[in-house]
Amino acid sequence: MSSLSSDSSVRILVLGAHPDDAEFHAGAFLARHARLGATIRIVSVTDGRSGHQSIPSPELVEIRRKEAVAAGAVIQSEYVTWDFPDGSLTPSLEVRWAIIRELRTFQPELVLTHRTIDYHPDHRAVAQAVQDASYMVRVPKVVPDVPPVEREPIVAAMNDRFTRPCPFRADYVIDGTNEFEKMLDMMDCHQSQFYDWMPWIDRTAPPSSMVRADRLAWLKDWFLQFHGYRTNAFWKSAWGSTPLHVEAFEISEYAGVLSSEKSERLFPGAFSK
Ligand SMILES: [Zn+2]
Known about the structure:
It is a single chain. This protein has helices at 21-36, 57-74, 93-106, 121-136, 180-188, 191-202, 212-227, 229-234, 260-266; strands at 11-16, 39-46, 78-84, 110-113, 154-158, 172-175, 246-251, 271-272. By secondary structure, the chain is of the alpha/beta class. It starts with 10 loop residues before the first strand and ends with a strand. The model has no long low-confidence stretch (mean pLDDT 96). The site of zinc ion has 5 residues, from loops.
């Protein structure tokens, strides 16, 4: 385990498919880095227009944009939503070029995204587009109006539970218990998702009260009940007693190479197998 040292020069870019993916999969990790002084930029590649049972799409896009900005503010980070259509994303050249442009302008040291075998087609499309951009970001004649970077960033996938054809490989695991409440604060900003859309699509009961303390208690119970699997899946007993909340990351073999010195900067306090 490495020490939790402060390094304000770390730049982290999250490329998630939807507004809420970053905090849902890596909220504690991002909250930790924010506390240590990293510069974090969160991108939702799609506009969130489809994930609701009743709100019209144009209105929903604006709601999702505001919810994302609020979630980013919880950790003093920029959170933007792009205009690609939620629910219909493909790993097109247009998406790849947008990602290359983003990588070259923001110049992150670490990029977080999904895996290419995720359940959701939008997640898979983002993961594929990031993989496709990971080398091309250095090729000057691709997206020629933005100068290429000298080195590819490190790319890591955020944890998932899918096993075909290969299960998630937890290269770095963090005990996110200390940052769990902050993660819930970020998720709480996405009210149209966690308290409305997800109960509807999952056929579960929404919060009985939207008083802040009540809905946060509901959110905590919901998360631990349906997504607490991460602790059993990724935590090793040799690291200590099982934490309340765990996040894990798998390093991409298609992007930058992670040295041991860099791993302490990018995954502070993490355990590795
Ligand atoms: Zn998503």
